[in-house]
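User: Predict structure, ligand nicotinamide-adenine-dinucleotide.
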Amino acid sequence: MDAQAEGTDEAARAEAREAAAERAAELNRQLEYHAYRYYALDAPEITDAAFDKLLIELQQIEAAYPELVTPRSYTQRVGGYVSPQFQSVEHMARMYSMDDAMNLDELDEWLERTEAALGAGHATYTCELKIDGLGVALTYEDGRFVRAATRGDGVTGEDVTLNVRTIRDVPMRLSQAALAHMGADARRPIEVRGEVYMPKGSFLRLNEEADAQGREPFANPRNAAAGSLRQKDPKVTARRDLATFLYAVADTAPLHVDSQHAFLSWLKEAGFSVNPNVARCTTPAEVHAFCADALAHREDLDYDIDGVVVKVDSFAQQDELGFTARAPRWAIAFKFPPEEKETVLREIRIQVGRTGVLTPVAEFDPVTVSGSTIARATLHNEDEVHRKDVRVGDTIVVHKAGDVIPEVVGPVLAKRPADAAEWRMPRTCPACGSPVVHEEGEVAYRCVSIDCPAQVKERLAHWVSRGCMDIDGVGDELIDKLIEAGLVHDVADFYQLTADDLAGLDTGRTYLKDDKRRGVRAGDPIPVGATIAAKVVDELVKSKAQPLSRVLFALGIRHVGKSVAEVLARRFLTLDALIVANEDDIAAVDGVGPKIAQSVRQFFSVPENLAVLERLRVAGLTLEEDLSGEAARASQETGVAEDLVAAQPLAGLTFVLTGTLERRTRDEAGAALKALGAKVTGSVSKKTSYVVAGPGAGSKLAKAESLGVPVLDEEALEQVLATGEVPAAE
Ligand SMILES: NC(=O)c1ccc[n+]([C@@H]2O[C@H](COP(=O)([O-])OP(=O)(O)OC[C@H]3O[C@@H](n4cnc5c(N)ncnc54)[C@H](O)[C@@H]3O)[C@@H](O)[C@H]2O)c1
Ligand SMILES: [Zn+2]
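Assistant: Predicted complex:
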């Protein structure tokens, strides 16, 4: 090679190195930014998969140019944050992150490396689920809980002791048996570690409440857990449903156990919550099988997992392998592939909530993601639509946030149609046409018209819902019809309804087929039957006994969710006391505060609202909190339920469901039958009153025919459900 060529070669290398350094700096900047949003604010802007991609790119650049690795690089750190809002706590020993295997090949590479270091066939592995929560360290002295801290930067964490005290499954004392196991070391402080998480169901409820109150929802259960634990006020944490799984300890020495699986048994014995899905594996094939099984069953769990953690079981072998700057060499996190799908965004529809908030909802071509079909996802507000820059006609990427909530990740810009226009929030309410307002400092736009039909409907639906007045049998369709017929406009109107008003209204559903006997034709509306009408009236009467806390929540006062309604009811006891209370008195209630107090006062100063309350009182609603104890209330409720049994139209009848139904699942159909008093069983006998058979029905249908049990098709079932009456015998 001549000197000149060598010179250009060197220049090209220098240029490439320069470009790599620049990219690495940029990646570090982005990683810092997103880590801050994730760890400090509990409000990530990008998915974990997108974050991991940035990190992997940085790792690859640093592998090619080792001189770019600095101690400040994100690859050399444990991601985390210590907020000045909390006292800081030094961990007894460093808390590490974990190296990832993004696929089975990377998992195998780690297994091979480990086998090579420990000697082939010498390692046993403990496989655990990787719980997607936030890491915490719990310190016990003399067997007593004294301190809890977040992971923070791995060396220093945030003191969250008072908050962790409110988590029910954290023991305040270790069991005598566990201390006995420690022998002479029982007095030494120990620091156990694990994950604080929020069950999926609680996460969904929390976000529903946030949506209803116009607050920003959490992106996924992990962030909801972190946001709930990292609170200045432990009372807020106490109201959130958090739980733990423990799986590690800072110093194994005092425990007198020599392996991970023995340690997990010790944790259980000590009183900690330990995840039951654990396996000891001796071969890579067994490790693979555990991973495959965990992936297949992740949807069935009530908490989020984002992978499997494989650990070398023996503590002696763990010591032999040691740690890198950010992670143990004796463990690997096998990360599940994120399920993301492409689809086409057809429409951004506006939903008007009961408080008038306009919420844009993405409607897209149905796709199957993580086991279920999704076709819409909330976009929360206008800012979010713009930040994501999604436009009608775009090909979009969708996934399930935390594997539960459908979410639009973003557009595929390369596939954007030339005419796709930037989306704008309408300036008038799509339901009533009044101009919408955008209050200072709020992300939400709202329709403030008192008469907005969308709000009227949502308010009525909220009133009857399970967590509020719990009025069975009044669904969305019936509410539509009641509004249309001019029978119900506000919640007090419900209590003027008579069975005659209801009977004959159409249910919003239609007949599927002609039925000469009944004189109906396909497409005719199915009317509400007399028995159902009577049942609805009974339900309304029953709801009058609901305590004040339910009524307050059901009224849909802005910022008053279920738990705020409960504390207000407990403090003021009667509606009258709350109506005359001043803003300061209300704000002084534990868990309330000025913003809520202002909203409550505002609600009670609107004459129309007071008029509705007065009509509720005249109708006989309780409007008082019953503090005579939960037990008394429960027995009262069952008393009412017993009275109702006799009135239930299908009481005494037994149904068996078989084959496929189109309008509802078998479970839903079963629940609807039970709601009318029927029994639903799994096998056909002489005692069976009716068999409902859809296409594909087999032996149960044959048995019904041989026993002479009447068989109904789906059409007939719908009529039974709509009218509460069974067909006359042939
Ligand atoms: N979306 C974003 O903007 C953003 C920003 C920063 C980080 N992140 C995400 O955070 C993660 C990185 O966080 P990390 O450093 O905590 O690493 P990690 O979550 O990948 O793995 C380590 C952690 O797993 C947890 N864990 C759960 N179950 C465990 C078990 N059975 N045994 C041992 N540990 C268990 C522990 O808390 C441990 O600290 C990545 O998934 C990354 O994508 C996302
Ligand atoms: Zn409106």
